[in-house]
Amino acid sequence: MQYFDIFLFALIAVFLVLRLRGVLGRRTGNEKQGPSDIFGRQTHDNEGQKDAAAQTDNVYRLPDSGNDQDAADVPSGTFATLQEIQKHDPNFTQQDFLNGARMAFEMIVEYFAKGDKDGLNPLLSAEVYKNFAAAIDARAEKGEHEETTLVGIKSASIHDASLEGRTAYVTVKFVSEEVSVIRNAEGDVVDGDPNKVVEAEDLWTFARNIESRDPNWQLVATETPEEETAD
């Protein structure tokens, strides 16, 4: 009986370990992407996800990013540059890039509003990060905090592109709707209107070493079409 009890407990232990591995090791397909892979392709591990992968070209798509940008909408010189980039990086496509750019836009706007410098760091070039961090610090010194709600991205289109050596630069024009206010330490609004949705246009330039195995791009410059001056 003593040996039987030991054998029985061993079987129970093995059963529990297998159950835990089955639950904790299972991928659902809903795992959240981190800042380092927003321009990368997602893989699908089970048969139930293959049909969805075929429909989405195996990339993460935001709900409002279903319309591909027509090649005719891209200036001829820019389109030729995009083709040149694709020669060096066969995995590059306009729509895959725009999907990642949309996600990067949402994340950067959110992190900047929250003052999350750690979240911003991997998404920005050193110079842009320096400027963003300085603005966050200045806001904190005044005892102010920003509240930004990105209502939606109305459109994102490739505005310009260039290839300098191994580095590709692609500028995206974002048209978005936002509600943004700045409050002081007492919670009073010092800038913006919490009840007003504002349409904003931004030109963001992303860069990447096209010979790198890292598929991600960094934000290297921001400007507005009216000012046309980089931050």
UniProtKB/TrEMBL annotation:
It is found in: Membrane. Belongs to the Tim44 family. Its main location: membrane. GO terms for biological process: protein import into mitochondrial matrix. GO terms for molecular function: protein-folding chaperone binding. One of its GO terms (cellular component) is membrane. Keywords: Membrane, Transit peptide. It comes from Thalassospira tepidiphila MCCC 1A03514. This is Tim44-like domain-containing protein. Pfam families: Tim44 (PF04280). Transmembrane segments: none annotated. It comes from the Bacteria. Residues 78-224 form the Tim44-like domain. Residues 30-53 are annotated as: Disordered.
